[in-house]
Amino acid sequence: MRSLIGLSLLTSALLAAPSAGAQEPEPASPEAPEFPPEQRYGEWVRRLDFRPQEYSFRRSNMIRLLRHTGGGIMLVPSSDGLTHGDTFRQLEDFWYYTGLEVPNSMLVLDADRDRTVLFLPKTDYRFENPGRRNDFPGRPLLNDFQLRGNAGMEEYRDIEDLPRYLAQRVRGRTVLRVNGGSGGALRQPEVAMFGAPDALQTMIMKLRVDFPEAQVQNAFEEVARGRMVKSRYELQKMQIAADATSQAILSSAELIRAGVDERTLQGEFESTCRALGSQTIPFTPIVKSGPNSLWPWRVLASHYGRRNRPMESDELVILDVGCEIDGYISDVGRTFPVDGTFTLIQREKMMVSIVAADAIIAAIRPGVTFAELTEIAYAAIPDDEEKYMQTPSFFGHHIGLNAGDPALINEPLEPGMVFTVEPWYYNHDLEIAVFVEDVVVVTEDGVEVLTKSLARTPDEIEAVMR
Hints:
The chain is an alpha+beta fold.
């Protein structure tokens, strides 16, 4: 019986087995995973901050300035794209002339041929990771024709062609122009023991290595002449930044009282800037009280714990702060009494600074120089107070995309120039420091104060504190 059962099982197995020539069916292959489509630049950055005509004018104006001073081609590099966790911020010159947030690119302003060329990578490397295609779907750049249409350049090339392009132009004795960051002859960057070269220094060193025979000249003055005078569209952005900064200062002032620390005010200021549309903070807010107020920010920033002091009664607290909106910044300063009321001596010293500031502002108009404004300021400062007023050149600095926008401080003022007026007062003898900083724009017949709505005199400040 057992043998019959075994034979039956064996027969069934043989009948079920495929014949020698039969093909075994292929196992079903899993379907290829579906990944998100490429993320186009226009899906993330839907429009430029300004109309394309604004950027076109800036580029053509720079080409005109270059041609007027010898021609050549200006190289304007973009950021490498690395942000270390911060919001990406494009290098200022590239942003100013293109409005684009692309990495690892080069704008060429060709004054010899009256042409702009944008060298772009084929793709944005930040959107690529073969092991995580679901998270990094890729982003084309060079062949994104919507991006090209928005940018409005005459010519687009692969960034890999840049060395060959420069070699050809250098052989033709074309002068290479770069923004050296300050006036005068272009300084050769050096690799220091400490710190690292910035993007422009790196580019200059690379040019020296790859093209030792090339003429590389400084274009800082031309950049400054173009960027010093703001368009009405830039002024609109700067007014928005000034208004946001003023509101953030008032929000911080509501928290001022004995026992509250400086960093609490800093946090409130930054939070309000963000709530009002600030993509980033242009510089670390300077909040300093009591003895801390007697020192410049570089001294305070050199110590890890020197920017979190609790405020005490009868002291003053200074806010030197700014918001950034769409790349344009404000830089505003105010002094508040911790107890809500200035002492007589504090009020007196506040007025030293305010009277000097008012004298400067009243004298601003086209054609005036900063040297003349400095003389006017000192004429308004009592002789025995002059040693406490701090100024390396004049009582302020140009602002725009930066708290130290490129500027030629010996040039006469022109309509559209924007700068700060800030007569600092540091009296170590009395241990009192006061500070009032406003943002002003030169108009056709005088000046407009962009921060005029913010309380600044002792009476106005005390009313805010109440």
